[in-house]
Amino acid sequence: MTYVKAEIASQPECWRRAAKLADAPGLPERGERVAAVGCGTSWFMAKAYAALREQKGHGETDAFQASEFPRRRRYDRVVAITRSGTTTEVLDVLNDLAGGTPTTVITAEEAQPAARIADRSIVLDFADEQSVVQTRFATSTLALLRAHLGEDIESVAADAEVAVRLPLPVHPALAEQITFLGRGWTVGLAEEAALKCREAAAFWAEAYPAMDYRHGPISIAAPRRAVWAFGEVPTDLPDEVEATGALFVHSRHHGGYAALGSWCGGRAPLDPMADLVVAQRVAVLLATSQGLDPDHPRNLTRSVVL
Ligand code: F1P
């Protein structure tokens, strides 16, 4: 068994543990103007959090790839997400803000520089991973942040218990490409799902805000390709995708999670974070079906140290 398979399967428990840290000191107060930063997977979690925090009325929240953080803007707090605690671009932001803007880091590694440089650190060491490819650290971070925004993580974790067992909606032998879509906070999840497919399986995957999909990317849709939407689906989009011959995948759509009614007794669609778990499992299958080791992706290391 690969490490990543076990790490994916442990997410429901990790999310429950992460949610218990919802009152940790250093998480943004309601009304604060906040920026969230990270690189790669951690950036996509920052994007999801930023959109959700603002949508829920907790205050203006931006998200930046750490290298693109606008140094001249004023924030009440900067939240940095970094599993390793060693990513250079993240450390640069934290160092530049030291003594000025309050900073909080969410990390798996208490002993690494990010936790030392930031004013506050929240350590999710129980969600650390042996696989280079991130799964449970990222989603546990988002579970913690969602819990801090007042969301009920128990029901999300219950959906993840379903997601780790579901039959997969996309089979590697039948798909040569996947485009992931999202709206609002699920745009970050879509980007993360596509990154998982690229990282773990060197598989052609793209991601867009769902409403932008018709503005060009739909040209990619064709038979043997899939379009997988997280969360809210724009009206008519499933029909437009299926007219191209592509498979439309959604946790509630008949053409995607085909037997939804039977596999989860007609319940509501999965929480989008649980839907991401299904996409992580697809990424691993895309890798192993080509004989690739999803724990050690080509050209990747645990963190990028420049
Ligand atoms: C960030 C990151 C990962 C990516 C790869 C390189 O790491 O970009 O998202 O999958 O492992 O590093 P971190 O800052 O969260 O440790």
From TrEMBL:
GO terms for biological process: carbohydrate derivative metabolic process. Coiled coil: none annotated. PROSITE patterns: SIS. Keywords: Repeat. Residues 24-163 form the SIS domain. GO terms for molecular function: carbohydrate derivative binding. This is Fructoselysine-6-P-deglycase FrlB-like protein. It comes from Paractinoplanes brasiliensis.
